Amino acid sequence: MYAPQGVKTSPKFPIPDTMKAWVLGGPGELSLKDKAVPVPKRAEVLVRIDAVAICATDLEIIYHGPPASIQGGPPFNKNFTPGHEYMGTVVALGPGVDEYRIGQRITVEIHAGCGQCKRCREGMYTACHNYGLNYGDVDKGHRANGFTTDGGFCEYQVNNINTLVAIPDEMSDEEATLVVTAGTAMYGLTELGGLVAGESVVVTGPGPIGLLGVAVAKALGAQPVILTGTRDNRLKIGLELGADFVVNVKKEDPVEAVRRLNGGKGVDYVIECSGAPNGVNEAARMVNRGGKICLAAFPHEAVPVDIAHIVRNNINLYGIRGEGKSATHRAEAFMSQKRFDATKIHTHTFPLEDLPTAIHYAKDRVEDAIKVVVKARGVSAAHKVAAE
Ligand SMILES: [Zn+2]
Ligand SMILES: [Zn+2]
After folding, report:
1. Cα(359) to centroid of ligand 1, in Å?
2. How far apart are alpha carbons 67 and 70 in whole angstroms?
3. Does some domain include residue 356?
């Protein structure tokens, strides 16, 4: 039975010594294996994972490797478990932890910075200078679960208490997995200055971050909020999440449409979530002079950018990584206050053992899948659950 020294457990939540965990072999190869249940150290807890959402970044990692970095290199054939957008129940406390209690439901953010570098001290722990230095003699205590340390496609994982977000009982497991996605959108708006009440915002690209970017911008009081994209079904969800206008870029020039919808002027902020090769250039023509652009997605290849236009118009570009500055806590506050319904982007749930099927749905957008969730318990193996 699991009883590591110095770790608090409870008979109400018995913990086995080993668990089922998906392990990455070569690119695209996942197999379900037995692994030892990890042990929390100081300032860490053990989380029983109740649900985990699949992110486009998981697909990047599983098929291509980056941005995961395991022991300073690609994540393949290193007994690495991917997955990072999970929620669950605290079931064991590392030495000295009293900030959370056993049995508490939580969701997680990804990055536990080292806590000692310049960026961590500024709250920018997703840009930790000791990123990935969590092994051997250079263990700086950094964790980015599913990127530099084992992640959530398994039954239990260790988390630093700084990565936990308490959630209310009324919030479903599936909704709780979306807090970190909303947190990423919130972080983008924070980095732009955060003062978006009454300001005009365009979100380009209705993926999960774009759609929740619309929701968060609206909840923060932005007006108008304009969403651009190519898929009408996703643009419709954008309207339900608070977009004032949507533009299908296949039917209309998005730069002209944005100006028309904003009284002939450029907007104050663009959150670029499409990753389209011309995304930066289009965003730079959507903002007004002095406007700000948050880059939350990127194309695979390097692309030409019209720098002269950016300089002449005093346009500001912000690259954001993840969900720093406790943005997940602010996103969770909006969600628990029901300021928007993030579950509109959740489309499918599968049992943990059907992860390959779930990945197929997410990757190939089967049945218009957006956010696909896997659960270790409570979903019958024979049936996928399509969300309403
Ligand atoms: Zn993600
Ligand atoms: Zn750091």
Report:
1. 14
2. 10
3. yes
Question: Which pair of tokens denotes residue 15?
Answer: 């913990």
Specify if 97 maps to a domain: yes
Nearest to 353 by CA among 141, 142, 65, 52: 52
Q: Give 183-212 pLDDT, tens digit per residue.
A: 999 999 999 998 899 999 999 999 999 999
Residue range(s) defining the domain that contains residue 194: 181-319
Q: Which residues of 12-38 are buried (b: 16+ CB within 10 A; e: fewer)?
A: eeebeeebbbbbbeeeeebeeeebebb
The vertex-254 CA angle with 252 and 259, nearest 5°, equals 110
Say whether both 219 and 249 belong to one domain. Answer: yes
Residue 158 falls inside a structural domain = yes
* Rounded distance from Cα 77 to ligand 1 centre (Å): 22
For 227-278, the pLDDT digits (tens) are 999 999 999 999 999 999 999 999 999 999 999 999 999 999 999 999 999 9
304: CATH: 3.40.50.720
Spatial separation of the C-alpha atoms in residues 322 and 253, rounded to whole Å: 30
Residue 179 alpha carbon to ligand 1 centre in Å: 10
What is the CA(53)–ligand 1 centre distance, in A?
Answer: 8
Q: Are residues 305 and 191 in the same domain?
A: yes
Ligand 1 geometric centre to CA of 83 (Å): 8
Total Cβ atoms within 10 A of residue 318: 17
Structural domains of the chain, count: 2
Does residue 136 sit within a domain? no
Q: Rounded to an integer, what distance in angstroms lies between the CA atom of residue 157 and that of residue 115? A: 20
Of 325, 368, 321, the C-alpha closest to 346 is: 368
